[in-house]
């Protein structure tokens, strides 16, 4: 009898696991190839309105891109934060902005005339406004001296009644950067304003980015607002604090805002950001955690060490004042506040009582001491009443939604840019590393012992 020879399946195809692995490998390679050749397009998008991916403005070659970008952002298709469908977000925020009752009760402001923009009140007088227990209280919140902008700019600012994105460049310290990834309806519902002084504008004239004889300026999405800074503070950094913390007063009809330092480039649509980080979290304000520091005193010591503010005696007095009045290091007792130190380069706000009160109180501290806003942040937050509903998001989220660039410290034509830290000229790190706070045998001793105890426990 002859033998029946059975046809055997090749060994290669007998392993289901191997087949699946090979299929997975080729699928992964395909997706990687697709992403590499199409870096600005998501393969899977749930939004019916794709973002505008083409550049909104082309700079002249003389101005150029800043070559010192710190490229930590992720691809637009991967994110550590959940973004809802763009079309749904546009509709929800539009409805919220029409519902004025969602932003009540309104904060009342102190009016009058003073020698400084914020009135420069004594310490205990400022602290007396922290407890806002009565809607009849009028809180000092700047504008006790005129904010020097043109009438046409003021009208445009008051006409912004939805979401406003705000930035500022003083002392020619940065370059203008255009946001990317804007949705198809965003420019209809969102205003973009950039505040500048004469020195910065002169640099734009030289690069022919704006005409010298125009009453209104616009560069890409940004409307440029000229501020006559000689009528405000001598320090450019303090002038930048006005639009940063009094955005709700400069834009009295806006309902939400995003402050973005000029060293940052926004990489995600602002409506998506407001919805994801403020509206969905039922927060008054959203701000990133600091990448390194948790305690206010850590930031104060770093400020002195690197002379981010040159008046060391003033820094010491500020910390002594806060310690005497109840400043404590961060512990779990402060939860849900997850740290005392933010990265304040990006701030998202709902213009309601909580964030407006916080912004006014912190601005008064900045005028009273110095424009280093991270130093007074936790003190105001912890002492104010009613409490601020704050979303302090992770550093990974910050790196997703913005690209950070180093400040522009180079000469541009006849324009000289200098450091904003106390008005001092640029120095090397080695030269700047000798400053330190002297807080031993002081009212901050208990703070330091508790902070170091927590750090080593």
From TrEMBL:
<keyword id="KW-1133">Transmembrane helix</keyword>
<dbReference type="InterPro" id="IPR048354">
    <property type="entry name" value="TOD1_MUCI70_glycTrfase_dom"/>
</dbReference>
<dbReference type="InterPro" id="IPR006852">
    <property type="entry name" value="TOD1_MUCI70"/>
</dbReference>
<dbReference type="Pfam" id="PF04765">
    <property type="entry name" value="TOD1_MUCI70"/>
</dbReference>
<feature type="region of interest" description="Disordered">
    <location>
        <begin position="416"/>
        <end position="435"/>
    </location>
</feature>
<keyword id="KW-0472">Membrane</keyword>
<protein>
    <recommendedName>
        <fullName>TOD1/MUCI70 glycosyltransferase-like domain-containing protein</fullName>
    </recommendedName>
</protein>
<keyword id="KW-0812">Transmembrane</keyword>
<feature type="domain" description="TOD1/MUCI70 glycosyltransferase-like">
    <location>
        <begin position="113"/>
        <end position="407"/>
    </location>
</feature>
<feature type="transmembrane region" description="Helical">
    <location>
        <begin position="12"/>
        <end position="34"/>
    </location>
</feature>
């Amino acid at each position: 009898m002859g033998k029946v020879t059975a046809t055997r399946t090749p060994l290669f195809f007998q392993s289901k696991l191997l087949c699946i692995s090979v299929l997975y490998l080729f699928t992964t390679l395909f997706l990687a190839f697709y992403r590499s050749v199409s870096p600005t397009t998501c393969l899977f998008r749930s939004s019916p309105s794709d973002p505008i991916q083409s550049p909104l403005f082309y700079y002249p070659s003389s101005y150029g891109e800043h070559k010192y970008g710190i490229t930590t952002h992720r691809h637009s298709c991967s994110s550590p934060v959940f973004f809802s469908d763009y079309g749904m977000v546009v509709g929800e925020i539009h409805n919220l902005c029409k519902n004025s009752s969602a932003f009540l009760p309104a904060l009342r402001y102190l009016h009058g005339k003073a020698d400084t923009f914020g009135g420069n009140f004594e310490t205990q007088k400022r602290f007396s406004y922290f407890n806002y227990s009565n809607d009849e209280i009028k809180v000092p919140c700047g504008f006790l001296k005129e904010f020097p902008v043109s009438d046409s700019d003021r009208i445009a600012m008051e006409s912004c009644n939805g979401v406003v994105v705000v930035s500022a460049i003083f002392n020619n310290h940065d370059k203008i950067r255009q946001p990317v990834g804007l949705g198809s309806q965003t420019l209809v519902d969102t205003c973009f304003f950039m505040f500048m002084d004469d020195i910065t504008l002169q640099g734009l004239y030289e690069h022919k980015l704006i005409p010298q004889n125009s009453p209104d300026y616009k560069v890409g999405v940004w409307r440029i607002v000229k501020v006559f800074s000689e009528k405000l503070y001598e320090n450019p950094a303090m002038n930048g604090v006005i639009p940063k913390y009094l955005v709700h007063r400069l834009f009295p009809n806006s309902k939400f805002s995003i402050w973005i330092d000029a060293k940052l480039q926004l990489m995600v649509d602002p409506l998506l950001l407001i919805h994801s980080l403020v509206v969905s979290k039922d927060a008054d304000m959203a701000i990133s955690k600091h990448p390194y520091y948790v305690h206010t005193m850590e930031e104060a010591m770093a400020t002195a060490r690197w002379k981010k503010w040159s008046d060391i005696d003033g820094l010491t007095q500020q910390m002594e004042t806060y310690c005497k009045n109840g400043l404590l290091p961060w512990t779990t007792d402060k939860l849900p506040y997850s740290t005392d130190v933010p990265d304040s380069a990006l701030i998202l706000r709902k213009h309601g009582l909580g964030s407006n009160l916080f912004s006014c109180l912190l601005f008064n501290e900045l005028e009273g001491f110095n424009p280093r806003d991270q130093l007074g942040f936790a003190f105001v937050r912890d002492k104010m009443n009613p409490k601020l509903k704050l979303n302090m998001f992770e550093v990974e989220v910050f790196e997703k939604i913005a690209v950070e660039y180093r400040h522009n410290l180079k000469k541009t034509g006849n324009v000289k840019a200098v450091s904003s830290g106390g008005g001092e000229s640029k120095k090397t790190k080695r030269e700047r590393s000798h400053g330190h706070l002297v807080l031993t045998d002081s009212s901050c001793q208990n703070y330091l012992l508790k902070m170091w105890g927590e750090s080593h426990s």
